[in-house]
Design goal:
9 helices; about 70% helix; mainly alpha
């Protein structure tokens, strides 16, 4: 015996047939529209909050970076000036040990030159706020990350003004304190504009500062010895 056809079996849909619109009076359709609207508003609000946090982060970060201009310059000049003085004394007093003083001065210039390069790269980050902001907008991250970075830069409730007046290098050194976002760090490292802000670069600046101070101490002693030798005609 043949069975009666099931509902809809063997039917074809004509592309020209009209499609029933969503009925706003239907509770099910209205609930779907309301849920979509709420989701869209939530996403828009989250994006707006993130953008405001990024703008605030740039506003507090740029002054701190610019405040490192003079301290880093002084650190660069300490071994550089002393190295030049060592060379001057060595060349003004010809002798068999001249090569030693020249090599010592050249070695002292290495950390100074390296720190000068890192200083220029760091200050380039703060040259144009719009470029920095655009680079940060390219990172798809939540507001929580930027809030943590803002708190690190402003030293909690102390404020960015105090931070940039007192210890900008130390503030930058703690930029990533409490942040565990490997993807964001990789994105920073991959960007030429943001790479100077990575933990590795910031720790490198600290090491170069210490190296320059150590080189300055050694070169200062060398200047004293070479100067006395020159004055005494030894």
């Amino acid at each position: 015996m043949s069975q009666p056809p099931l509902d809809g079996e063997g039917l074809t849909v004509d592309p020209g047939d009209p499609v029933d619109p969503v009925d706003a009076a239907d509770p099910i359709d209205a609930a779907g529209q309301l849920g979509t609207s709420r989701t869209r508003r939530a996403l828009t609000a989250a994006a707006a909050a993130r953008d405001r946090a990024i703008a605030q982060f740039v506003a507090v970060l740029v002054p701190v970076i610019r405040a490192t201009r003079l301290p880093l310059l002084i650190v660069v000049l300490i071994p550089s000036v002393l190295a030049v003085l060592v060379m001057v004394f060595a060349l003004a007093r010809p002798g068999p040990d001249d090569w030693f003083w020249v090599v010592l001065a050249a070695v002292g210039l290495v950390p100074a030159g390296w720190l000068a390069l890192r200083r220029r790269q760091l200050l380039a980050v703060a040259d144009d706020r719009d470029v920095l902001t655009a680079a940060l907008f390219g990172l798809v991250t939540g507001r929580e990350l930027w809030a943590q970075l803002i708190d690190n830069v402003t030293v909690g409730r102390v404020g960015a003004a105090v931070a940039r007046r007192s210890r900008p290098l130390r503030v930058l050194g703690g930029l990533w304190r409490g942040v565990r976002a490997a993807g964001v760090l990789a994105a920073f490292a991959a960007s030429d504009q943001l790479a100077p802000l990575t933990p590795l670069r910031l720790r490198g600046i600290w090491l170069l500062v210490l190296s320059c101070l150590l080189a300055g101490a050694v070169l200062g002693l060398a200047v004293l010895i070479a100067g006395l030798s020159y004055l005494l005609g030894a």
